[in-house]
Amino acid sequence: MTTMTSSSMSFVLDEIVTGLAVNAFYRSPFMLPLLFNVRGSSRRRERFASVSGLNRWAVKNPTAAASPDNLIQQFEKDFVHTAYGQEIAVEREFIDDQEFGILEKIGDQIGYNGGRTMELDAVAVWDDFTAGATHKAEDGLSVCNNAHLNVDGANSQDNLGGNSLDTDGLNATRVAMRGFKDYRGNLAPSIMRLIVVPTALQTRAQQLARSEKNPDNAQNTANVFQGLEYVVWDLLSSTSEWFGIDPGLMMSNLLWLQRIGIEIYGSGDLFTGTRKIGGYTRYSRGVLDWRFVYGNAP
User: Fold this and answer.
1) Are 293 and 250 in contact (CB under 8 A)?
2) Per-residue exposure over 130-157, b if at least 16 CB sit within 10 Å of its own CB, e if not
3) How many structural domains compose the chain?
4) Which residues span the domain enclosing 45?
5) Distance between CA atoms of 127 and 140, rounded to whole angstroms?
6) Vertex 284, ends 282 and 288: CA angle to 5°?
7) In a domain, 59, yes or no
């Protein structure tokens, strides 16, 4: 009987490991597709630009042209893709001796680590919302900031507070988001339909979102926040920061641009007696407009 080797059955072995890796990749607890707008990209970089809002429509006389309006460009932002990869060298003897258990573990770990890398890169954006050390909004400031400005330095706005996660804090956040204005200074309310919290605040979020009665007083009043959606992200580094979110605006402004999806590959080298198994992907991520979120750092 012919022994299976990396030279004679490399395609089969690559396919086995690829299948295991992909299964492990999708087994990872993924918040990325829920909290980012995931888009494909076919270029080295993607460029976005924002413009001022338009005024309300004016009354039009039957014989007159519509009233003219104009847009003013605000900010530009580039998303430049970064490549990521991992490679493991396997001795040919493992394949000669049909040590498929080891190959299964390798495939499983490569796929899992690929997914985990993407998830950690995603949560790093959220962890930086209040600090703005690396991942900034299109205006060059932290995503959650006390002094967002237009490109001309006007229209200062605030989406960073210190509210605790309770009914008063939820109400203050909701009111603040309803007061957001567009780049032209027109009222452009954001609607808080979702909160994102760390593990330490999960129980509190459940109480506020699921209780029929107000959990913060003894007057037996109705809980006006019952039914509020919440997401618990175990990877968030802060134990106290939480975020009020307008989901629709989030999908327009929190982007994950996938240039190359997860790929699993293998190559053999009979001179060194090894077979390499690895993975590759390429993407970028970041924030455009900040108005989808109000951050709280109690």
Assistant:
1) yes
2) bebeebbbbbebbbbbeebbbbeeeeeb
3) 1
4) 10-50+77-296
5) 17
6) 165
7) no
Sheet-wide strand order for 242-245: 160-161, 293-296, 242-245, 194-197, 229-232
Instruction: Using the structure block, give the residue that is written with the tokens 């204005």.
Output: 181
Whole-structure pTM value:
0.85
- The strand ranges marked E within the chain are 37-40, 45-51, 73-80, 82-91, 160-161, 194-197, 229-232, 242-245, 254-269, 274-287, 293-296
Do residues 50 and 138 touch, judged by C-beta distance below 8 A?
yes
Task: Classify the phi-psi angles of 290: left when phi > 0, otherwise alpha if psi is within -120 to 50, otherwise beta.
Answer: alpha
Q: What is the pLDDT of residues 9-49, one digit of tens each?
A: 343 344 445 555 556 666 656 899 999 999 999 999 999 99
Alpha helices in the chain (DSSP H): 10-27, 32-35, 92-96, 100-127, 167-178, 202-210, 247-253
Question: Which DSSP symbol is given to 199?
Answer: G
* pLDDT at site 278: 79
CA neighbor of 143 nearest in space, from 298, 284, 292: 292
| CB atoms near residue 193 (< 10 Å) | 15
Neighbours of 116 (CB within 10 A): 17
Q: Which residues contact 243 (CB under 8 A, 6 or more apart)?
A: 126, 129, 144, 195, 196, 197, 293, 294, 295, 296
CATH number, domain of 175, equals: 3.90.1690
Phi and psi (nearest 5°) for 214? -60, 120
Cβ atoms 287, 138 nearer than 8 A: yes
Q: Does residue 208 sit in helix, strand or coil?
A: helix
Please give the structure tokens belonging to residue 7.
Answer: 């030279």
Quote the DSSP letter at residue 138. T
Most distant CA atoms of the chain, gap in Å: 91
Residue numbers of the chain with a pLDDT score lower than 50: 1-16
Residue 3 domain-assigned (yes or no)? no
